[in-house]
Amino acid sequence: MASPTPAVRAEQLLWDLVYAYDDAYERAALEVGLSAAQACVLEHLVDGPATMGRLADEMLCDASNITQLVARLEARTWVERGADPTDRRVKRVALTPAGRRARREVHRRFRLPADRIGRLDPAQQEQLAGLLALMTDPDPERV
Amino acid sequence: MASPTPAVRAEQLLWDLVYAYDDAYERAALEVGLSAAQACVLEHLVDGPATMGRLADEMLCDASNITQLVARLEARTWVERGADPTDRRVKRVALTPAGRRARREVHRRFRLPADRIGRLDPAQQEQLAGLLALMTDPDPERV
DNA sequence: TCACGATGCTTGAGTTGCTCAAGCATCGTG
DNA sequence: CACGATGCTTGAGCAACTCAAGCATCGTGA
Predict the structure, then answer these.
(1) How many domains, in total, are found in chain A?
(2) Are residues B119 and A134, on separate chains, in Cβ contact within 8 Å?
(3) How close B89 gets to chain A, by Cα (Å)?
(4) Which CATH number belongs to the domain containing residue A102 in this structure?
(5) How far is CA A35 from CA A29, A99, B21, in A?
(6) Å between A62 CA and D22 C1'?
(7) CA dihedral for B26, A15, A69, B70, sign (positive or negative)
């Protein structure tokens, strides 16, 4: 077989990596008693409380989905729903200490990225970060 | 704030990329009328038929899940379930022409990897493929 | 000021993806 | 040829999701 171009090889390798990444994340969450989606919510709250709407935007899903996700998280005391002082329609969702611990624990068990990146030497890590920055940076869509 | 190490930056960028990747794949599939899981099944059949059990292994899920997934795909004539000539317990699942077209169409719409990799020049693509190869290559687990 | 559209969230109904436990048919082997 | 192992399906049940409707609150223009 002809050897594929670097671009095609990179595409295949990226697919494999994403596959492994998703699986590892789900496993890590599961070990802590969370679903991947729930862990993802905790992740989005780590830098401070957020409104339901903001979570829905960030997680690219319907607001009603967040309602249920947060309800389940709240039932397990990983998250608290509070009122917004300036707008009574808005709910502010915040991590509880237990939620913070759970999220930390998911991170601790989610070894895959650190492991994989750790296989590279510092110069290669620098290279990778540079390449990913070029790739991740979204094209300017606005005028 | 102190600037994070390359490893930490790479980890963050990788997270973002995986997030975008998953979302883009699901969207691409949805546009063709498939769920991500269904598209994934078609993907696994592209190099030829597979048994239900093999699909379950590759997709890291229970066999009964594959039963239902394949049933839905079959109902829409994207795959066919045939008998194995040498073992009557085994079902061989194969893409139909329509299934092959659908899978192709998902790929056509799933622009993200090619787009992102396409932002790199050939030398960078080569670099990326090399780094990903180092990362993806699983540690030898067998003796 | 107050009616009314917009905004933020929830509820209810319905689908899919998934798991586990059980069950059925077939296979291979002692 | 009996019996455990293998391959798949069925049924029950949950989580994650979407859409449509509904409720409360907000902000604004007449």
Answers:
(1) 1
(2) yes
(3) 29
(4) 1.10.10.10
(5) 6, 13, 20
(6) 16
(7) positive
